[in-house]
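Input set for joint prediction.
Command: fold jointly, output tokens.
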Amino acid sequence: MKKQFLKRVLSTLLVGTMVAGLLAGCGNEDKPSENSTQQSEPDKESEAPDPGEDNQESDNQGGDEGHGDEWIADRDIVVQIFVSDAGNALPEDQENTPIFQEIKKRTGISLKLQYTPGQNGSLDALTTQLNAGLDDSVDAMICYLNNSTRPEFPVLLKAAKTDEMFADVSEYMKNSKVYSKYYEDGYLPKDSYKNIVFREDLDGVYLLHLNVDEVDRSMIYDPNEEYLGGPYIQKRIVDELQIDPKSIRTPEEFYDLLVKIKEHGFKDDNGQDIIPLGPKFWGGSFDALDWDMRGLRWGISDGYNMDKDGKIYHEAETDYIYDLINYVRKLMAEGLMDREYFDKSEERAGEGAWSKSYGIIGDVHNYVDIIYSSEDWVPLGPLNDIEGDNKMVTTGKTGSCCLAIMEQAENPEEVFRFFDWLCTYEGQLLCQYGIEGLSYNMVDGQPRVTDEVKAKLNEGDEEWLVNNVGAAFGGSGAYFFECILTNKNNIDNFGESRPGASGGDDSENIFARSVQIAKDYPREYKLKEGMKATAYLTTLDEAAQAPLKEAHDAWKEVLQQAIHADEGEVESIINAYRDRLQRAGVEEFKAKLMEIYNEDPTSIMFYGTMPE
Amino acid sequence: MSKMQHLQKGTKVKRSPGERIIQVIIYLVLIAICLLIVLPCLNVLALAFNDGKDAARGGVYFWPRTFTLENFQEVFKNKGIIRGYGITIARTVIGTFLSLLLLSLAAFALKEKELPGRTFINFMITFTMLFGGGTVPTYIQYRKLGLLNNFWVYVIPGLFSVTYLMMMRTFFEGIPDSLEESAKLDGCGYFGIYAKIMMPLSKPVIAVVGLYTAVGHWNDWFSGAFYMMDTKKWPVQTVLQQMLNKAMSQQQITSVAQAIASAGGVTSNALKMAAVVVTTVPILCVYPFIQKYFAQGTMIGAVKG
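tokens >
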């Protein structure tokens, strides 16, 4: 009897422990993935294009007897795609999609696109397959590569340098129609030229950086193409408090606004008091600080900057960091900022935004449905940065995606010529607009999409665009034909920034409000050349890179700890991190940065507190 | 009369107050655990059948607020889903059948005490459980075997599991030797013993191994994501994984054109829940048919006699 009783007590305790363990696991929320691409990085015009240049070059790829000038060879070209945007927008039946048929007819090339998604985006698939070796049938590969700091780059470099997997295309480039421009001074961004295409440690050209605009329009503001990221405030708050959202510039003005919102006692859709400042729309994130505390983010170069004495520091090593920490702590302590600003789940952050539980969404953009589907939200600011103005920083010309032709490819020159042809005027017209008569017509010498295509673009019917035409339509269709291009200049070539951008009835366009926001809240740009400091981590020895990289990766967590810590702990947390940086070799890294900076000040982005 | 005898006879046994309290606590805890499991499933169903935009406002817990089938329409609009289902069903059926056949034959052989080198063979098989090749060597091996971009990459690598082999072997060892001996005396060969004696008696272990193998095939997205270049050969889990990745990539859009393209699709939490329902319900429907055997089979190897 006693034994039975004891057994029951023990089993109850065991079950209780299990339940406690289960409940302990319930409180964890997935950390949102970091997104550093929410800041608007427009690749728009800075200077007017050279009017003397005729961009409508006729293709002259050589041709073959009995075939047109565009003829290359009767063969297959197999491309392995490591770009998830492209892989997710491939036609069901490639061979019978109009654009593939047209390519075959004009060039003789049967283009076959293959895609391997991998686990978390294309990076792990790229790493696995390049380390293992691509299938012998693959002639070329394409992957993401905004710049040499992307995680794909070391994999590509190893494949090019050590494993010799790629063909040297330098001899074909020099006489090519489009890629020969890569040799021109100033054509490529510095990083593309020095670190990707024409590396000194490679004896040829193995990696072709793509999507480099012919003309740098990064400084030109075009409301039809503007992608306005940053904080957005409720329109009713603007009306009731009678404020001009564009006038909020400094941390003090931002604080005063948050206080006013709180004091006014606005309620959300559920009748609850709103939180003045909410997290990023897609979930809590450290990155939103770059928008909302812009004037307090001293470390503009991935945490680093140069002070007025000309010395380089990580922001954790300066007293500037306490200004940021104390400001955020004050906002949270006074109930002006969501305490889960950094780690709220995507679902709850979205719920809060939709039910107007936040006065200000920390970061969102004008092409998200919560913004364009109503007039409830308008942009706030942008706030001033450490230079004291609210201009958006642009680095000038950029690139994205990288093409490499495999060493194993049969006749790599033909493969190269094909991709070069795709980037000519005729090739770009086909890639972007599709087939004349089917998806576009020539109007006054400029291609204009048909009404049917325009309607599909407005509806966002990607499936139709991909399967019935197969062209890129500026990225709204088969994305492969967008990312494979380079030397783009749609304004001069086609008279519009992207297919379907011009003309049409705005009332049918679901993004009319997005464009209107861009018109009503224009932004200015300023050019700041150079890569972010951490891009030069690879200049250190391999053994020295890892601890410093880990320290950099940990910085966001440390900052959040300091923000949420008790008063007396903040300094010790920051001091502990400073020690960690020292142990990780930050002095050696800073010395290297200084060396690079002294050699060429435009190679690293520093601004705001530098010596004049 | 002992308490057990009382219970067997159906006699009501008087419990002490302490026992009753503990009984109540146990029931409450078990109910709580059941709710912990059932309520999230209800939440998934509620969101799957709720309008996406309405769901995004929050407050949908166990019942849809704005009922709609749009999420499922969106999921099935993708032809890849239907095709994926075909691939998944094919690999599950073929893979499970072949796996059971191979494992049962191997387990039958290994249970024979007269097998020469039995100890060594068992050791070599068990040794492989200690490590794996890693993703890159595995990829290289599949490439050299011609399994890349091939349907059989879903079946062949997963045919043989050492864990399930040991489970089956243990079960076969539990079947009395006398049955086999008497069958031999009657002139039955090894294959006859396997087919007419071992397999009919092994329904519990076949059910368990079969279910685990089938679920493994059903849930596998990794093979399609890494070893299949032709998107038409993706299983349904890989298709759904890509669909959800695409929905989540709205955060990483850097151009207006991409933003326009992504706006056409339903991108809500409700879509994810619909995808979960679509992939989970079919395998759930199989379970009731094998539950009887499953309950017996899960204790294999744990209880002697």
